[in-house]
Design a protein that fits this description.
It is a single chain. By secondary structure, this protein is an all-alpha fold. It has two domains: about 55 residues; about 50 residues, no CATH class. It contains three helices and two strands. It has a two-stranded antiparallel ribbon with strand order 1-2. It starts with a helix and ends with a helix. The structure holds zinc ion.
């Protein structure tokens, strides 16, 4: 009886220990998350203080801050440069809107205007169009020669 009581006491105190540990862990976790909440607010506030100080003393910071101010200014310059590059890239892309007006004589695919080769079958594009031009010119020339001959007769 005495032994049984002692065993049950041990079990009870052990489970009490576990419950206490669990509560403790939960409490510590809650406090730790409260601490990191405060640290986040501090970081944001320091950032705000820094920005305000920068804006207020932009032209003439205390010497200790000069190097840090230069970093900020360098970043501003870089951002400006990157933005200019972005708008140039966009302009260039707008400038080269592709038109597909020519038809491949080989496979019939519409091909980008002025392209040298068909993008599907690789047939030469310009050659066929210059050939047509040339043959038209030859016909015109022949007709002129013919007309001259007729006039002479
Ligand atoms: Zn083709």
């Amino acid at each position: 009886m005495d032994i049984l009581n002692r065993v049950s006491d041990t079990i009870t105190s052990a489970s009490r220990d576990i419950a206490r540990k669990t509560r403790e862990t939960a409490e510590v976790a809650r406090l730790n998350s409260a601490i990191s909440g405060c640290q986040d607010r501090m970081k944001r506030t320091y950032l705000q203080i820094g920005e305000m100080y920068y804006m207020e003393t932009k032209g003439s910071p205390y010497p200790d801050y000069e190097q840090l101010f230069q970093v900020i200014e360098e970043c501003h310059r870089q951002i400006k440069g990157y933005r200019e590059t972005i708008s140039k890239v966009r302009e260039n892309n707008e400038g080269t809107v592709k038109e597909f007006t020519e038809v491949c004589p080989q496979c019939g695919k519409t091909v980008e205007t002025g392209a040298a080769y068909c993008s599907r079958c690789g047939a030469k594009m310009n050659e066929s169009s210059t050939e047509t031009m040339e043959s038209e010119e030859i016909i015109e020339e022949a007709q002129e020669v013919e007309a001259e001959r007729e006039q002479r007769q």
